[in-house]
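DATA CLASS: polypeptide
GOAL: derive structure tokens

***
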Amino acid sequence: MKRIEMLTMTIAVIVLAACTGKDSQAAKEKALDEQGKNRVIETTAVTERPVSDELELNGEVACDEQLLRKVYIPCTGRVSGVTHVVGDYVKAGALLGIVHSEQAADYHKGIADADAELRMANREYQMQRDMRASGMASDKDVEAAHSRVTMAQAERSRLSAVASIEGLAGRANALLRAPISGYITATNIFNDSYVSEDTNNEPAFEIADLRRVWIVADVYESDISKIHTGDPVIVTTVAYQDKKFTGRVDKINNVLDSDSRTMKIRVTLNNPHGLLKPGMFATAHIMTRHYGKSLCCVPTESVIFENGHNYVVVANGKKYGRRAIQVAHNSTAFTWVSAGLRPHENVVSKNALLIFNHAS
């Protein structure tokens, strides 16, 4: 009898341990599942903004010309030392290339001649001062010698400044250096090529700081009146389909292309991580017509349509709940809600469907 009781207790302990292990494993799996969801979903705060329409324009990423620098070759000569290509990042002051030039040698010969003239002028000035002390020279002679020193110093300073501006820092060489930190967007010289006066019209390098870029887009003549400077813009790209970049219209051209019947507009975007590159295709979603009233606004991808009703998933800490809403107006980027949401609530704005069916 005792053996049966002990066997029964042993089986009970084993069953209890197994259940506990399963519960623990289930808890771990649930925690991992929650962590996975948190990694792939994003939330956005509900905001109030005027109801507006949207105009979608095709465009291209371009350098902000205020952050673009062009490096020109100051003389003719043979090129060497070019190691950077388009797309490379360079720091300000980095050596981009060397031009071995007779013109550069002439600059340095001029500097050497100016140094010699300055030494002679200083010796003559000192000699005239000594002679005046002994009564063998007049004040006029000393003043003339001093004027010669002044002129020699001015010429030496001028030549030195020219050499510095033109990048003629080495003997018979012109050193091409990066004026700013940024990415090389164009290059027109190659090692062992010769630059002549006839072929020296284009910049040797173009360097762009991509912390801020432009989107240049075409707007059809029929839509020109809908766009105004300062209109908010959402930009999407083929390269980063899950990302949205925000900016504003900052320039509208006043010249219409007679062939395409379009006019160009410019959108300025901050690009702190350098994701947007010149030449990328972009789509600009411009918030245009305003209806004068403000409603709760959420990203359009937050809204889920099911069984004839619109829903969003509201995030409250780590808890998620579905909520029915009434849509007043929508566009590609935003949806305006007339009932069901309050400002500053958080809604799931990315991969909402992943948790919609499990939300209470």
Remarks:
- Residues 70-208 form a domain with the OB fold (Dihydrolipoamide Acetyltransferase, E2P) fold (CATH 2.40.50.100).
